[in-house]
Design brief:
Number of strands: 7
Distance between the termini: 18 Å
Radius of gyration: 17 Å
Largest sheet: 7 strands, mixed
Number of helices: 8
Strand content: 15-25%
Length: about 230
């Protein structure tokens, strides 16, 4: 049975993230995920996120018709749209209601065989149902390794195919940068990103019965560094 996260830790961090993305950073993230002109720092982050999104979408089957996919932390919806265009029935959920509103407004009216159901709330909500695939792009990078794996363990109980997620890989440089909070200018600084050592993460993931690590890809683009990892059924 999946381990339940301690409410005092997981829920508190979730609320901090909701406040950040619906408050201080809302305008910055709307610009970042559009074609609006941004600073040089944010331009590198945008380029890195675009590459990461393409990588994760490329790891999914090319034909997702009649398949349910959870976009866990959908933000302004770009990945949800890309996946829906492969024919999937996408559930896009995010704790930041303001970003989900933008996602709904930006989504094209026609998605071929695919469709998107938008939700504001917790990616772990069991009422969302079950899925063939789960994607969590940069939505777990604010959690410690043990909390990240606890979250993945809960998601495995509702997924029958693959779980694709990203984490902030620990390097001496990234550790120093994250430690002093210099990834963004002070006015738009996010809750702390937690660098995680890949070896430690892989060790912790061995406890997920019936699942194994598949592909991985690290993407670095200026001030953006994130690593994708694929979990697949054994």
């Amino acid at each position: 049975m999946a381990t339940q996260l301690a409410p005092s830790r997981y829920d508190a961090q979730r609320e901090k993230l909701a406040a950040y993305f619906d408050g201080t950073a809302r305008k910055a993230w709307i610009d970042l995920t559009s074609d609006a002109k941004v600073s040089g720092i944010r331009a590198t982050v945008r380029a890195g996120r675009d590459r990461m999104r393409s990588t994760l979408v490329g790891w999914l089957p090319v034909d997702l018709r009649r398949k349910r996919v959870l976009d866990a932390g959908c933000g302004t919806g770009s990945l949800s749209v890309d996946v829906a265009c492969l024919g999937a029935e996408v559930t896009g959920i995010d704790i930041a209601g303001g970003l989900v509103e933008i996602a709904q407004a930006r989504a094209p009216g026609f998605l071929g065989h695919g469709r998107i159901d938008w939700h504001v709330g917790d990616m772990l909500d069991p009422s969302l149902g079950t899925f063939e695939h789960v994607v969590a792009m940069d939505s777990l990078i604010h959690y410690r390794a043990e909390d990240l794996v606890d979250t993945l363990e809960q998601l495995t109980t509702r997924c029958s195919g693959s779980i694709l997620f990203t984490f902030a890989p620990h390097t001496p440089l990234l550790g120093a940068m994250h430690g002093v909070g210099k990834l963004f200018p002070r006015g738009n600084r996010s809750p702390a990103i937690v660098p995680i050592a890949e070896r430690d993460l892989r060790r912790r993931l061995t406890r997920l019965a019936g699942w194994k690590v598949g592909r991985t890809m690290r993407i670095s683009s200026g001030f953006y560094t994130s690593q994708a990892l694929e979990l697949v059924k054994r």
